[in-house]
Design brief:
With 309 residues, the chain is α/β, with parallel strands linked by helices. It contains 11 helices and 14 strands. Bound molecules: adenosine-5'-triphosphate (ATP). The site of adenosine-5'-triphosphate has 12 residues, from strand 2 and helix 1.
Length: 309
Amino acid sequence: MDSLSEVLLSVQGLYKSYGSVRAVRGISFRVQRASVFTILGPNGAGKTTTLEILEGIRAADAGEIELFGHKTRRVTERMKQRMGVLLQDGNFEPYLKVREVLSLFSCFFERALPVDEVLERVALTSKTGALVRTLSGGQRQRLAVGVALINDPELIFLDEPTTGLDPQARRNLWRIFQELQDAGKTVILTTHYMEEAEALSDHVCIMDHGTIIAEGSPEELARGLGQDSIIEFELPHMEAAALAPLREFGSAVEHRNGSVVIHAPKLTEAMSGLLSWARAHGIALTNLAVRQPNLEDVFLSLTGRRLRE
Ligand code: ATP
């Protein structure tokens, strides 16, 4: 196999507008087989629109897609048989049992996995006879993942799969997604949680206002910010002028949403300068943390905004 055959999906110049709203503005990217490819971006960035085009739910205005080795303007029914889709708001009939939901969806495909196998993969074996209405939010989402897996797809789309779930339920889902990747599946994920993108992704596209503004592995993207350490602390109210002395030892100093973020090329000097400044102003440095740059910092430095502002 040559290296090109490892590319499962290639997208070139994809555009989509809704009237005057230019949701997707000419994006291009490639997804390697057996990888987790993530589109990270804030609400309204164009993530769902992109996914819906790739899932064959929407037609693009322009652009070319090469999927499973075939070039196309629009995803075909045959391609859909090889995909699994976790929809953003998959509401199942509340009076169906868990097993019945999976059996129902298995009828839509030429090839389907045994329901018991899927139940096991999404850790719902003990809930096989439970009514959908009795499931917790996390269990309901695992059922939705089960539905996305029923046809044993090669390519799985997960559109904001953990939005609104508590940390435990989120981690349970992450484990299932990691197992999919271990099993050689290709996963395309959208999220506005940078921790999720960092924990799961091989490759991240950062999307904003319908365009891809940066891409790479989470490590590559963070490295793009240089070797600076990030110092962060809470400071609800402060005059911008009072922060000015911090710029002496910070290559960038941001004050947003009640937190100060300093990019510090020389950590020791920055820390001693910060402590003097805090003492002089009587500032408590609440929740002071020092860390390496993450994807949120990348987004902030590219757009001047936070992912969930
Ligand atoms: P979210 O995280 O909120 O789902 P997103 O990144 O997935 O956001 P999209 O849902 O693709 O973004 O929306 C991109 C832009 O297109 C937004 O401005 C949105 O309001 C608009 N949009 C999305 N769907 C439609 C539609 N059916 N009709 C009109 N405008 C739409």
